[in-house]
Design brief:
This is NADH-quinone oxidoreductase subunit NuoE. With 267 residues, this protein is of the alpha+beta class. It has nine helices and five strands; from the N terminus they run H-H-H-H-E-H-E-E-E-E-H-H-H-H. Among the domains are: 15-98, Orthogonal Bundle (Arc Repressor Mutant, subunit A), CATH 1.10.10; 110-208, Glutaredoxin. The longest helix is centred in the middle third of the chain and has 19 residues, at 118-136. The protein binds FE2/S2 (inorganic) cluster (FES).
Amino acid sequence: MTLPEGTPETNSAAAAAPGEPTRKPVAEAGSPGSPVFDELTRQRTKEIISRYPQPRSALLPLLHLVQSVQGHVSQDGIRYCAEALELSTAEVAAVVTFYTMYKRSPCGQHLVSVCTNTLCAALGGDAIYQRLSERLGVGHEGTAGEPGTTGSITLEHAECLAACDLGPVVQVNYEYFDNQTTESATELVEALQRGEKPHPTRGAPLTDFRTAELELAGFYGDLEQSVEGPSAAEETLRGVHLAAEYGWAAPPLPAEPPTLPPLPEKK
Ligand code: FES
């Protein structure tokens, strides 16, 4: 399927199911964020909110939905979430600025995250980040190319990406590329700039940042394809295999739950 540049594949009218609202913008008078978010996004907003007993609990996935539309969380996005969840803009902004997954400026087609936490850094993560930063001509959260267009890349250094046994690790749109070197990471980035989508070491095929954001909000164009691919690596499973080899097992759970001490009285 050919989509306009910067349009998440599963956020387009072409991807909408029969009967599902299409991507025609609908502005509502008196609502500052309204022109930015179309009817399909509003329907998805309602669906996200309906998943939770309290509307405010929907904030995190709703911010991912906003990023799937805009490629970042703008002031309009903050107002949109605040209105939808009856929160203040200050409450929404506090969450947006706390979590690094919410971006304050427009991202490229792909988000490349280089782990520079202790283990990966010692194994070469710092050198990889340095090389990619020079190759792309940008620093942390800088974007090479026009945000959202094919081949544009936002670079960031990240804290532990939870794959220390496979370091140094790079992620593209949160998909893993394990055991990287400066050369392999440079080749990866150059392929992305040419518009290619190299297959991650583990997990699903690459899409783009905005499609990944839509999936984080809980909407999948093709759920099976979105979770396709092995998620575990041999290094990660080594402990399980050793335990099986030596017959190690955790002690069985007690038949009755242990008695917990009484809680102290609240003052
Ligand atoms: S230190 Fe890089 S994945 Fe943990």
